[in-house]
Amino acid sequence: MGYYLVMLLSMVYIVTKAQHQWHFRKISNTTNNYKLNLKEIGDELNIFTRDLPYIKVMLREKYFESDSDNSYVQWFLQYSRLPMIISSYDHTYTNSNTIESVIRALYQRSRDSFVITTESRHLENVAKHFIQRAGTFFFIILDNQRLKDYKKLLDIMNSLWMKYKTYKNFLLTVEGIFYFDPFLLNSDLNTYGRLVKINITEPHERILFRNMHRYPLRIQIFKSAYARPPTNESDLSITKFYGVDGRVAELLEQKMNFTMVLQKPDPNYFGERTKSGKYNGAIGSIIEDEVDFCFTGFFVKDYLVSKYMDFTVAVYDDQLCLYVRKAKRIPQSILPLFSVNYDVWFSFILSGFVCCFIWWLIRRLNIWLKIKMLNNRQPLDHNQWIQFRRICIDTWVVWVRVTILRNPPFNSELAFMGSLCLTSVIFGAVFESSLATVYIHPLYYSDINTLKELDESNLPIIYKYSSMADDLFVSDTSPVYASLNKKLVHVKDLNADIMVEIANNGGKASVTRGNTILVESDNFILSKNINLIRECPKYYTISYVNPKDSPWQETVNNWLLRFLSSGLIEKWINDMKTNVDIAVKIKGVQSFTKSDTFKILTVGDLQLAFYVVLIGNTLAAISLIVEFFMKNYRNVAKET
User: Fold this and answer.
1) What is the pLDDT of residues 310-350, one digit of tens each?
2) In a 10 Å sphere around its CB, with 0-12 CB exposed, 13-18 middle and 19+ buried, how is residue 145 labelled?
3) What pTM value is reported for the model?
4) Which architecture, in CATH terms, is 2-207?
5) Rounded to the nearest 5 degrees, what angle is found at the Cα of 43, between the Cα atoms of 41 and 44?
6) How many angstroms separate the CA atoms of 60 and 558, rounded?
7) pLDDT tens column, 262-318
8) Do 3 and 64 touch, CB atoms closer than 8 A?
9) DSSP of 144-194, one letter per residue?
10) Burial level of 23, CB count in 10 A (0-12/13-18/19+)?
11) Among 164, 459, 460, 549, which has the minimal tally of Cβ within 10 Å of its Cβ?
């Protein structure tokens, strides 16, 4: 309690003293009477503090009062107009060499702003103790020495950059305010990184990342829907790439003026959590700080690594879709039956029976009106059933375009038979044209087009990337989703070509990005071996990823938004799809030229005709046998 009381009294003393002593003028804070223009420095500090939510003023515990008298400290206390927390720290105990402190500095969520008083000999330990990747730091150097030899300070700043990627580090010295620019080439040391005296009127980030002076960034990109990096077969390295993601990376490289150092793609692609608890793939590379940026699009979702990885703004979108093998081709033996739709067959058969009934009604009307029959006609049978049977036979003979043996006995029936002939010609033309079409262009059974049909098929649904299936079917959404979720099967072999396996063998379904099939799979487009299910269960926006709080993240996001608003990314996507369409059409024309110009019919194509003849002869034989036994039965009945 006493400690806090002393701290409170000290803070009151500092503020009271500052109110009496502070004014903008040239003052001396050194033994050699080197003057500081705090009016200019105040204007410069305003540029870097106006967007800060608050600051933490850290004064050395042992020299609390003397540190508070420093002119820079007084400016922050009186003229920064920021909420602040004033604290003290023990500058003699700042152990920052533990692994925990490094991890804390890299991935903690805090974005604090510090004003820290220290000496140059303690700067390294003090900085590592308080450092945060996204933090802003104003180190007030209290040494009474001018920065003629600043190599030590430069080494400290460079070490902080290389380890933690912190760039908002400002040195407030007796010579003025300096900041560390990690992208400027130091010609003396032939390395990147220089201390630069502030003389700017623009935001710090805009100055640094407007021109990165060809600074090398470790870039990872691997095969995906819009990324096509060809790999070196000997060492699997990448020297170039093709696709939308590659063009975005190249344009960013040009606009920000950095150098892409392409990293070898991880064999686990996007990455997932292993049994040991660590992550592999691109996610693992980001966590282990092995890459600076990944220009392969990720679904924007929770990968349970938000502490280590950030997304850029969304650059495009896509769906997760399921696909199966296309339904089997209809056999040649029954192909004519499927040459027209079921409704045409139904109307043809129904019309035949309706015509039989109409012809019979015309016959009954002629008899009732006692219309005279045509000459040379046999008398009609008195049994009406026999007449009706004869009419049905004649109707179907005409309906299938076959010549009848005897013309009907009345003129009205002849006219009706003529209308039957014309109608049968129309039906016949439809059948013949459709039959010729199905022999040239093959027909298939009905495909699986909905998720319900997929569920009813009981096909297993296989996937390679765990991120595609962890929330693909939310069981609480519907019973169909719950059932499909139970059918998911993970394939550990990421190099397996599941699409080819399904196209050749079938028996399973799989999930992939919708654009992957449309952009990548000639097998799907040309050979029609794959059927894309119309209902896609998931829709995602897609972004690139980088380590948490990367220095260049804001600048990259600003450039990506400019690319999107100008329509560049959409144009590149359309260009890529157009190139695929052109390639597909060229292959399609070549395929048509080779095999589809003519269709030579063989005996195998006429199987149905032989089946009809065989069935007809069989029925005729059965009818002959039945009539023979019935005739014998009648003769025996007469004799008795």
Assistant:
1) 999 999 998 888 999 888 877 776 777 777 787 888 888 88
2) middle
3) 0.73
4) 3-Layer(aba) Sandwich (3.40)
5) 65
6) 39
7) 888 888 888 888 888 888 889 999 998 889 999 999 999 888 888 889 999 999 998
8) no
9) SS-SSS-HHHHHHHHHHHHHH----EEEEETTEEEEEEEEEEETTTTEEEE
10) exposed
11) 460
Q: Within a 10 A sphere around the Cβ of 625, how many other Cβ atoms?
A: 10
The span from the CA of 495 to the CA of 130, in Å, is 45
Structure token digits, residue 185: 């080439």
CB atoms within 10 A of CB 422: 8
Left (φ > 0), alpha (ψ -120 to 50) or beta: where does 48 sit? Answer: alpha
Contact 362, 410 (CB under 8 A): yes
In whole angstroms, give the CA distance from residue 485 to residue 461.
Answer: 9
Q: How far apart are CA 448 and CA 106, in angstroms?
A: 49
DSSP string, 437-466: HHHHS--BPPP--SHHHHHHHT--EEES-H
Calpha distance 567→597 (Å, rounded): 42
Kindly tell me the burial class for residue 451, based on how many C-beta atoms sit within 10 Å of its own C-beta (0-12, 13-18, 19 or more).
buried
Provide the residue type at 390 as one letter.
Answer: R
Neighbours of 133 (CB within 10 A): 22
Q: Tokens 């280590």: give the residue.
A: 308
CATH architecture of residue range(s) 215-311: 3-Layer(aba) Sandwich (3.40)
- Domain positions in the chain are 2-207, 215-311, 332-440, 604-639
How many of the other CB atoms lie within 10 Å of CB of 304? Answer: 12
Neighbours of 178 (CB within 10 A): 23
Check: CB of residue 550 under 8 Å from CB of residue 166: no
| Structure-token pair, residue 503 | 């196209």
User: How is 366-409 classified by DSSP, letter by letter?
Assistant: HHHHTPPPPTT-PPPPS-HHHHHHHHHHHHHHHHTT---SS--S
Longest dimension (CA), the chain: 153
Residue 612, judged by CB atoms within 10 A of its CB (0-12, 13-18, 19+), counts as: exposed
CB-CB contact of 31 with 60 (8 Å): no
User: Which of 248, 279, 266, 353 shows the shortest CA–CA distance to 566?
Assistant: 248
DSSP letters for 221-260 = ---BTTBB--B-TTT--BS--BSHHHHHHHHHHHHHTEEE
* Distance separating alpha carbons of residues 156 and 615, to the nearest angstrom: 96
**What is d(CA 295, CA 263) in angstroms, rounded to the nearest whole number?**
11
- Residue 325 pLDDT: 87
